[in-house]
Description:
The complex is a heterodimer. By secondary structure, chain A is an alpha/beta fold. Chain A has a single domain (3-302), classed as Thiamin diphosphate (ThDP)-binding fold, Pyr/PP domains (Rossmann fold), CATH 3.40.50.970. Chain A has eleven helices and eight strands. In chain A, the strands form two sheets. In chain A, strands 2-1-3-4-8-7 form a six-stranded parallel sheet, sandwiched between helices. Chain A has a two-stranded antiparallel ribbon with strand order 5-6. Chain B is built from 13 helices and 16 strands. Chain B has helices at residues 22-36, 60-64, 76-88, 100-103, 107-114, 117-120, 150-153, 167-179, 228-241, 259-269, 284-296, 318-323, 328-339; strands at 2-4, 13-15, 18-21, 40-44, 69-71, 92-96, 130-135, 160-162, 184-189, 196-199, 212-215, 220-224, 246-250, 253-255, 272-279, 305-309. In chain B, strand 4, helix 2 and strand 5 (69-71) form a beta-alpha-beta unit. In chain B, helix 10 (259-269) crosses helix 11 (284-296). The radius of gyration of chain B is 21 Å and the shape is globular. The interface between A and B is large, with 52 and 56 residues.
Amino acid sequence: MQRELARQFLHDMILAREFEQAAADQYQAGNIAGFLHLYPGEEAVAVGSLRAADAGDYVVSTYREHVHALVRGVPARAVMAELFGKATGCSGGYGGSMHLFDRERRFLGGYAIVGETFPVAIGVAYWLRMNNRNDVVYCFFGDGAANQGTFHESLNMAALWKLPVLFLCENNHYQIGTEIHRHTAVPEIWRHTTPYGIPGKRVDGMDVEAVYAATREVLEFVRAGNGPMLLECDTYRYRGHSMADSGAYRSTLEVQELMARDPVKSFRQRALEQGWVNEEDLTDIENAAQRSVEDAVRFAAESPEPDDVRKDVYAEPFHLYGGSR
Amino acid sequence: MRTRHANLGHEPVTVRARELKVWEALNLALDEAMATDEAVFILGEDVGLYGGSYRVTQGLYAKYGEWRVRDTPISENSFTGLGVGAALVGGRPVVEIMTVNFALLALDAIINMAAKLRYMSGGQFTVPLVVRMPGGVAKQLAAQHSQRLEHTLLNVPGLRVVVPGTPQDSYWQLKQSIDCDDPVIVLEHELLYNETGLFDAEAEPLPLHSAAVRREGRDLTLIAWHRMVPVALQAAETLAAEGIEAEVIDLRSLRPLDLPALVASVNKTHHALVVEEDCRFAGAGAEIAASLHEAAFGALDAPVERVAGLDVPTPYNGLLEQASIPDAAAVVGTALRLLTPRVEE
């Protein structure tokens, strides 16, 4: 483990935790509306997997995607401003928490209909393969999405045409309030690729180093033109599905057990033990994350509202009846 | 192209127009679009090796290869969504859905994704996607294969919906749709593919969303699209024998709607009748009638009426099937009633 990489992981995970806590606070304060799905507990997945990506790779994500965007380099200001619905947000205030986009960083959006990331990802990958490009498409999805038709349809097409997709399952064991043993007959999602001849792999999603190493291995396979691969990250979300969900369907004991394996704390500990960082470094990282998030909230609060409701319905506006202007 | 020597003894006059079938015109449009832009590719069920269920993609697989003419599995939602994904990063996919009935399985890709991604991304992404699909009542295909989808697609901001019915329009509008940076749904009619019409590749195209006057008249405006255009023209012939001159407008596009063209016609005729094959309740005709009432109430001598398909699933039986959609006689009957001055009771 490189010292630089360890510090990067710590920076990303601590920033992620701070950011999501601030988002929850701002939601409670009434500054963020709508649905808000938070990431605490799952940080090792976004950080470990996306830090293994090349700059040219594409990311197609779900509605729980703030941290994916942050790790991909979308500024905390632009993400927070989007949650606030402001014109300075990464989607101009038109998307919100579930629809973060950043064209420049090849962040192709958060999709809020479960199972939509599959066809979008294979479409991007089809285009890459058709043009002999070497980039890979990250396709994030949760355990619940594995039961959508698009999962199976897209796995089939990705395998048929050897498309460069990394299907990345964030298995947090719950589709909202239904636990995986009650929604999926074979709860090991990585095994669902077998009928399509796609290799699958499972990794401890609470361990950022393990996720990083596994992702690198999978990326090497996919980038070499071998077709898609699926990586299942076994993880857990501490909070409810969204701010509207108290998570009452889970026992306190279960949540406490998982929190004892906290990805941020455990990697922090390991980094100290290995001498990759010292306490002073950690304080610096924590302070920097806190400042960055405070700055993002201030920026979002002070930013202007978008003011044109008809903008960008169509790329080529027209004047006939039924148009946008 | 054929050359006609119409003026004997003089220089030969080249008549550029030739006879072409609708499917041939669509095929030509695809071929030309693919030849000029490598970003254009086709995908759908049986579009490649088989040549397309209605021959629209015939010959293109051999010419452009499997990556640009892709036979897909029967997975409408995902291969339409594949088109959306490719469109986000530079592709100009033309998705063929074998019939509109199957497009019901792809509505998530069309409505939740294609129509919304530009707006939701704050204008960062465009979705230059074309989705072609044949529909309408054909010949005794029964309820699950005889639908129209105008009612569903028209109510979706972000989509454009065009309805070419002639070879010339099929060629123009498909090429324009491929050039367009917005998602365009091209609705085709199953019974029109083998219809022949005059075609001129070099003629100046009408804009994608303009309506066209197919017959001029002063007494009544008949508004139609797809296969109801020939029905309206036939009705206009009958009405002409009774001394009534009906103007027939082929809408060519349903969203956006060329309302100015309709208003201009109604300002002249003061009467309008919408002829639609789709079911009457909450169909496109309802939108057209309401819009005309709002935009041209002062010019109308009577309320806009509709002759539409019955509000029933399409029956298999041939006689019942015919009874479920408008014919020229129904249009004539309604037109005559519409033109009869109302007497206060």
